[in-house]
Amino acid sequence: MPSNMSLFSVNAILIISTDDRSRILTKYYSAPHAPPGSTNQPGVNPYPTVKEQKAFEKGLLEKTNKQTSDVILYDGRVVVFKMEGDVMLYVVGGGDENEIMLFGVVLALRDALSILLKHSVDKRTLIENYDILSLAVDEIIDDGIILETDPVIISSRVSKPPTQDITSVKNIDLSEQGLLNAWEFGKLKLAERMRQL
Question: Which of 121, 186, 112 is nearest to 150 (CA)?
């Protein structure tokens, strides 16, 4: 049994344009309780500066540009990737991470973006819909922990607001008199609670 069991499994998620090598979205994650001063432990971000991140991304793009496989080992990290239009989707994990699990993440991202952007996943569409892209990534991964890999659930969470919140908002009076009524109601309830004590 490994001594450092953790839910943390994703070091980075990268979306890079293949034509001009520009960064569309890059998120690097560090485990919340990583030992300070070490770079070999799982969960420690090995690329803390933007210069190191760009060097890693440049080398990664050069290495995967002509690859036919979807999984490589690069710089001691497991990297799974998919090319979609003129962008590359990367998920980077530690050297001992399960590549099938990471591949599920990159497929979930690709399929969720395809659903959300109506099968138009390219650089221009991603930049125009950066809010949707960012929300989709946040629904899949939170601080390096994989939360969801079902693209239908991810796209439904990103595309529409929860219905239970909308029904409660419709009946709120936000006029000046409505706010004064709410203030008086709050004061009355607070006074009742204070009398009960």
Answer: 112
